[in-house]
Amino acid sequence: MKNLFVVGSLHLDVVVKSPRIPKKDETIIGSAVKYVFGGKGGNQAIAADRNGASTFFAGRVGSDSFADLLTKQLEGSSVNFSALQVGPGASGMSVAIVEASGEYGAAVVSGENTNIDETLIKIPENTGVLLLQNEISETVNLEIAKKAKAAGCKVWLNAAPAKKINSAFFSLVDICIVNRVEAEFYNFINSNKTHKNLTIIKTLGHEGLELIKPNGKIRKIPAFSVNSISSHGAGDMFIGALAARYLIGDTMENALVYAQAAAALFISKAEEERAGITQRAVIDFMENNL
C-alpha cells in the first residue's frame, strides 16, 4: 500500500455549544465548551490513520501551550509527523459554535500555519496521494504539489475554505473535494472545464454526494441516514476515510461509499466517542445499513 502525505493546518478548536448561532451584534448564553484537536490538515491525517492509511503529515505549530496539546494528539496516533515544524509565534486556533441542531459556524486564526517553510518539506518515499487544503499558503501548496507530481503522486485538494485558486496550482490537482457551500463559490464545479483530468467530488450533507468525472458524467451516491449530533469536522473524516480506502485499493466509487459511512458514524457520535471510528467500526456500520 502506498503512503498518504498530508500537508496542512493544525488548529486547537475551541468548540462552544449554544442553542443557536448568534445573529450579528447578539450575545447568547452557551452551555459547554471543549478544546479539540483540529485544523483540516491534522483532522484529515488522523482520520486517514484511523481508517487504515499509512499516513505522513507536515505542518507547523507555535511555541505555546496549544502546541503541546496538538502534538500530544499526534503522538497518540500512528501518523508520522517527523516533518512537523515549530515556529516562535502562536499555534493556529479556531472558535466553533455548534447549535442544538448540530449545525455550526467557525472562525479561524491561522497563527504559525501561515509560516510553513515548504523548502524543508520532502515527499516521503512510496507516496501515492498528496492531500492539501486551503488553510495554508497557496505558495506552499503549489511548491509541494510540484514535488508530488515530480515523484509520480496524485494530488488531491480539499478546496476549503473557498478562495480564489491560482491556475498554476490548480492545474496540478487530480481530485478536488468541495461541499455545497464551496461549490457555489467555484464556477468550474458544474462545467468541469478547468483541465481535462480533473475529478470533482461534491458533498451534499444528508443528500449524499456527486462524483463528477473528467468527461462531465455525474454519479450520485446517497448518504446514510443517521441522527446527527454535530456535523463539525465531518468533512475531514470523510476525506481522510476516502483517501485511506483509495490507497488500500478500493475503486473510487466503493471508497466513496465507505467514506460516507465513516462520516455518518462521525456525526452520530459524541466527540469523546469519535476516536472509535476505525476500519472495523465503519465496516460493521456498512454491513448493518446497506
Task: Give an overview in words.
With 290 residues, the protein is α/β, with parallel strands linked by helices. The chain has an 8-stranded mixed sheet. The protein has a 4-stranded mixed sheet with strand order 3-2-7-8. The model has no long low-confidence stretch (mean pLDDT 92). Helices cover 31% and strands 24% of the residues. The protein has helices spanning 40-50, 65-75, 138-150, 167-170, 180-185, 188-191, 234-248, 252-267, 279-289, and strands at 3-7, 11-17, 32-38, 55-58, 60-61, 85-86, 92-98, 104-109, 127-133, 154-158, 175-179, 199-203, 209-212, 218-221. The radius of gyration is 18 Å and the shape is globular.
Structural key phrases:
290 residues; alpha/beta; UDP-N-acetylmuramoyl-L-alanine:D-glutamate ligase; 9 helices; 24% strand
What would the CATH topology be? UDP-N-acetylmuramoyl-L-alanine:D-glutamate ligase
Briefly note the structural class of the backbone.
Answer: alpha/beta
CATH homologous superfamily designation: Ribokinase
Number of helices, counting only DSSP H or I runs of 4 residues or more: 9
Main beta sheet strand tally, sense and closure: 8 strands, mixed
Global shape: globular
Element-by-element helix/strand order: EEEHEEHEEEEHEHEHHEEEHHH
- Into how many domains do the coordinates divide? 1
In short:
This protein is α/β, with parallel strands linked by helices and 290 residues long. The chain has helices at 40-50, 65-75, 138-150, 167-170, 180-185, 188-191, 234-248, 252-267, 279-289; strands spanning 3-7, 11-17, 32-38, 55-58, 60-61, 85-86, 92-98, 104-109, 127-133, 154-158, 175-179, 199-203, 209-212, 218-221.
